[in-house]
Q: What sequence folds into this?
């Protein structure tokens, strides 16, 4: 029996040697090939998986004959040369060599051969195998792979400018089993543009489950979603740009490389066109107050004694009456320059006494005064003038005004009585009860209410447009400052306007308006340095609201929003303030407010606000009503039509825009809004 074992052992060893040589050659070739292809780690990993599977088969067969416990193959291998008597594992006392035992327990031949192959690898490449296995284990624990663009979404995409910034909302996802438990990952948005320039936005940091920190924790098993907001300071070169997410990552103290991911392309900068749109409306002009026909009035007073209606000679010699008579004569003498509308006579009685008596008295005073006025009109050869005569029986309104303006002792009490009592008799009774107060009224207030007012309503007629132009050509010094400023509005040529404003500034150097308007002309030409000088000169002459409004427009062109906001706050009541406010709100991204600021004005700026507010019908209507349409007017039309889906009409408008302003051709090449028209 023992000899049979030895014979079988001999045969088994012979077969093992043959198979050993075959596996030796195959293993050497396989390892060399895997080294060349860089797949050695994968090769070893697969071998280990195969051996582990076979080990389970061997264990199951050994268990059937009650020879082996758990994992006999692995234990037998590590004790192949160290077990006493050549036994295996905990059954080394059986004194049966492995090949013999393998046959005896009928372990499948494949298991036997694979085990021999493992012996070869471990015998000849033990160090290499352990090293490779360690590298595989470590790399699988330490690496964090590349993220895909599918892990991110950006809103909006393409990006859009807003308030001088390029804002973006990034929605990201860390996949399952990606964020290692000791990892820290900082996500940094970058906008790459203009041949290598990079702008970085606000970053966000995330951490694994075992990191002690205050950042958002991401589960290794479940992964996680996050939202981060960022913004870049806009520059024109950013129209052609790409947005990337870059990563600073580490596991423990070891830095990890995660490749950058492209997440968005380009920037739509339509909102930034406000800087160019301002040129269409121009600067804020300080207006003249010239009116060819102005309503004027001159008033005189005749006072009466208590309970009387006759005209006293002393009253008729007062200065107000003398000026009244002289004005009537002047109107008659200068009918081309002065036009009499009517003469108003208003007679009054003071409120003390009964209503019936005062009503008759006031009527008599009206008749007396009206008769005097008619006599003076006849003497001034204005007999056909209209006289509007009327009276007030008890002048409580005049009484209240005089008491409120006086310093009498019972002023507050008297005013309170007037508020509390509406009946005239009750009012008078309450006031008379204040004996001391009433004496002051009788001497200081009531005599002033016994009167008639004589009012001349007339118009001054100024020079006609032709007369003003002729006078400027002959001798501009004879024109008023308002006539000079008005004369400039009659000219369409900017150079002629400037000539008139310069003459006005020379003749009336204390008036800020001519200096401001010269600055507005320079602003319209794009000469901002000269414009600033003129606006500064205007401000040196006192309150100059339009100069501040214009300086705010220059600040907006320079992108200085805070300066613009301050200057506008100093431009209260300035002409054109709504235009400045509207452009400021476009620059700040407040499009709906900007639309309200512009109101019904027909300018490029107003249309741009409507376009950005997505009211395309209103924007189209505004653009169609702009009187001085320029290249940008048609460019805005192209944008509106393109957003409405009218590609053909948009293309025509774009061609018209470029024909009027060639600089828009280069801008259009970079404008993503019109990319479909190229």
A:
């Amino acid at each position: 029996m023992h000899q049979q074992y030895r014979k079988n052992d001999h045969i088994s060893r012979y077969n093992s040697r043959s198979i050993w040589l075959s596996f030796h050659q195959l293993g050497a070739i396989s390892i060399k090939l895997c080294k060349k292809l860089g797949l050695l780690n994968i090769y070893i990993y697969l071998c280990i998986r195969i051996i582990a599977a076979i080990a389970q088969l061997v264990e199951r067969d050994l268990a059937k004959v009650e020879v082996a416990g758990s994992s006999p193959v692995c234990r037998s291998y590590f004790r192949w040369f160290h077990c006493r008597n050549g036994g295996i594992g905990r059954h080394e006392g059986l004194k049966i060599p492995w090949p013999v035992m393998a046959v005896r327990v009928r372990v499948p031949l494949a298991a036997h051969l694979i085990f021999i192959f493992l012996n070869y690898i471990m015998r000849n490449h033990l160090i290499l195998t352990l090293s490779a296995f360690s590298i595989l284990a470590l790399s699988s624990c330490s690496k964090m792979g590349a993220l895909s663009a599918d892990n991110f979404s950006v809103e909006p995409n393409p990006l859009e400018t807003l308030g001088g910034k390029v804002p973006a909302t990034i929605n990201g996802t860390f996949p399952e089993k990606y964020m290692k438990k000791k990892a820290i990952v900082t996500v940094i948005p970058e906008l790459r543009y203009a041949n290598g320039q990079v702008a970085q936005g606000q970053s966000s940091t995330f951490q694994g489950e075992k990191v002690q920190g205050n950042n958002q924790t991401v589960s290794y098993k479940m992964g996680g979603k996050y939202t981060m907001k960022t913004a870049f300071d806009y520059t024109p070169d950013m129209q052609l740009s790409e947005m990337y997410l870059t990563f600073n990552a580490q596991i423990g103290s070891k830095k990890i490389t995660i490749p950058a991911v492209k997440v968005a392309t380009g920037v739509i900068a339509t909102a930034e066109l406000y800087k160019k749109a301002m040129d269409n409306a121009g600067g804020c002009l300080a207006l003249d107050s010239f009116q060819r026909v102005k309503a004027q009035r001159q008033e005189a007073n005749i006072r009466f004694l208590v309970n009387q209606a006759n005209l006293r000679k002393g009253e008729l010699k007062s200065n107000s009456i003398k000026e009244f008579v002289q004005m009537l004569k002047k109107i008659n003498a200068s009918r081309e320059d002065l036009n009499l509308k009517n003469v108003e006579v208003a007679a009054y009685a003071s409120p003390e006494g009964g209503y019936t008596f005062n009503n008759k008295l006031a009527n008599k005073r009206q008749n007396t005064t009206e008769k005097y006025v008619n006599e003076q009109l006849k003497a001034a050869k204005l007999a056909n003038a209209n006289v509007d005569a009327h009276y007030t029986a008890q002048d409580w309104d005049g009484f209240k005004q005089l008491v409120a303006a006086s310093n009498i002792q019972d002023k507050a009490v008297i005013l309170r009585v007037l508020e509390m009592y509406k009946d005239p008799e009750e009012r008078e009774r309450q006031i008379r009860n204040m004996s001391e107060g009433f004496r002051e009224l009788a001497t200081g207030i009531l005599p002033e209410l016994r009167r008639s007012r004589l009012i001349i309503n007339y118009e001054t007629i100024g020079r006609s447009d032709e007369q003003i132009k002729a006078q400027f050509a002959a001798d501009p010094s004879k024109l008023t400052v308002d006539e000079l400023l008005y004369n400039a509005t009659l000219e369409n040529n900017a150079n002629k306007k400037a000539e008139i404003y310069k003459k006005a500034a020379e003749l009336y150097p204390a008036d800020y308006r001519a200096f401001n308007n010269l600055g507005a002309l320079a602003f319209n030409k794009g000469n901002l340095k000269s414009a600033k000088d003129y606006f500064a000169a205007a401000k040196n002459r006192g309150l100059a609201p339009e100069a501040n409004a214009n300086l705010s427009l220059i600040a907006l062109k320079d992108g200085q929003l805070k300066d613009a906001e301050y200057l506008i706050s100093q431009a209260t009541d300035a002409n054109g303030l709504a235009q400045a406010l509207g452009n400021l709100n476009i620059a700040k991204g407040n499009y709906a407010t900007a639309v309200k600021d512009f109101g019904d004005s027909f300018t490029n700026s107003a249309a741009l606000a409507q376009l950005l507010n997505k009211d395309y019908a209103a924007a189209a209507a505004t653009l169609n009503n702009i009187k001085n349409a320029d290249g940008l007017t048609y460019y805005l039309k192209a944008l509106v039509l393109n957003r409405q889906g009218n590609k053909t009409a948009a293309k025509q408008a774009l061609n018209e825009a470029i024909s009027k302003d060639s600089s828009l051709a280069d801008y259009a090449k970079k404008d993503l809004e019109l990319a479909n028209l190229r």
Remarks:
- The chain has 29 helices and 16 strands.
